[in-house]
């Protein structure tokens, strides 16, 4: 009999919270075969133990569509989920070429090792110290403002309004998104609005609570990013849609 899936999530303290959304762990994954990965708007650094006890570190780009969870390969993973500001300030690289995909990194990346997967609390403590030590504070203030407005509105803000608020041209904003994340601002905001909608759907609010054009548009956008209707998401049989970022 397979063991139950074990999931943990820890939010970082400020000021790291501007760059890191959370630390998370998922154990006994190999026995869970029907999960669906849905877009979450984060860049995930995964530390994985496979079913053969090998150790891998993977950098995952943004997801823009649902995909089935890998079957029977990864048993345990710890993850650092980054906000986009971390690309320049911590990771020092773009993930534009990793949309809906990822790449394997050296298994000593940032000084992590296989034994770090033995204790999630110790992993979070170690990760916090490492990230704080390499964090670069030399970041364009307009980018901080950009994401502050986007997150505060759950993506319900247009590029024209953003441009006016942060004094950055619409062309420069879209170029930044495409160069760093590989998607447009509109697509990214759609993912955030989808994520915000999940909280409403969880409590049975199957009509749009956010600024969708109408019910038909709402259903279309939910299905595009989850693969199923709001009604099916609400049922979430066997917790199929609880996993994202893998």
Please specify the SSE layout and strand pairing.
Blueprint: E1 6-10, E2 20-27, E3 36-37, E4 43-50, E5 55-60, E6 67-68, E7 74-82, H1 86-91, E8 102-105, H2 120-134, H3 141-152, H4 159-166, H5 170-180, H6 185-202, H7 215-226, H8 230-235
Antiparallel strand pairs: 1-2, 2-7, 3-6, 4-5, 4-7, 5-8
Average pLDDT over all residues: 87
The percentage of residues in β strands lies in: 15-25%
The unreliable regions are: none
Total number of strands: 8
Please estimate the helix content. 25-40%
How many angstroms separate the termini? Answer: 24 Å
Strand order, main sheet: write it out: 1-2-7-4-5-8
SSE class: alpha+beta
3D shape: globular
Order of helices and strands: EEEEEEEHEHHHHHHH
Q: What's this model, at a glance?
A:
The chain has 246 residues and is an alpha+beta fold. It has a domain at 6-134.
Please describe what this structure looks like.
The protein is an alpha+beta fold and 246 residues long. It has a domain at 6-134. 36% of the residues lie in helices and 18% in strands. It has helices at residues 86-91, 120-134, 141-152, 159-166, 170-180, 185-202, 215-226, 230-235, and strands spanning 6-10, 20-27, 36-37, 43-50, 55-60, 67-68, 74-82, 102-105. The protein has a six-stranded antiparallel beta sheet with strand order 1-2-7-4-5-8, with helices on one face. Strands 3-6 form a two-stranded antiparallel sheet. The longest helix has 18 residues, at 185-202. It starts with 5 loop residues before the first strand and ends in an 11-residue tail after the last helix. The relative contact order is 0.17.
């Amino acid at each position: 009999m397979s063991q139950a899936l074990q999931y943990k999530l820890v939010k970082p303290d400020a000021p790291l919270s501007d760059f890191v959304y959370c630390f998370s762990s998922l154990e006994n994954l190999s026995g869970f075969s029907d999960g669906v990965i849905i877009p979450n708007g984060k860049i995930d650094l995964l530390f994985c133990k496979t079913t053969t006890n090998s150790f891998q570190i993977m950098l995952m780009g943004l997801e823009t569509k649902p995909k089935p969870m890998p079957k029977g390969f990864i048993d345990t993973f710890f993850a650092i989920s980054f906000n986009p500001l971390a690309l320049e300030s911590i990771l020092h690289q773009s993930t534009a070429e990793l949309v809906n995909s990822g790449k394997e990194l050296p298994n000593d990346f940032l000084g992590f090792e296989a034994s770090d997967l033995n204790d999630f609390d110790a992993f979070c403590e170690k990760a916090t110290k490492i990230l704080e030590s390499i964090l670069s504070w030399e970041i364009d203030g307009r980018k901080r403002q950009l994401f502050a407005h986007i997150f505060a509105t759950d993506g319900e803000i247009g590029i024209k309004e953003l441009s006016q608020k942060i004094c950055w041209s619409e062309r420069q904003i879209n170029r930044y998104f495409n160069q760093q994340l590989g998607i447009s601002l509109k697509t990214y905001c759609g993912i955030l609005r989808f994520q915000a909608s999940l909280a409403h759907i969880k409590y049975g609010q199957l009509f749009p609570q956010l600024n969708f054009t109408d019910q038909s548009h709402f259903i279309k956008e939910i299905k595009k990013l989850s693969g199923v209707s709001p009604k099916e998401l609400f049922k979430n049989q066997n917790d199929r849609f609880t996993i994202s970022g893998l």
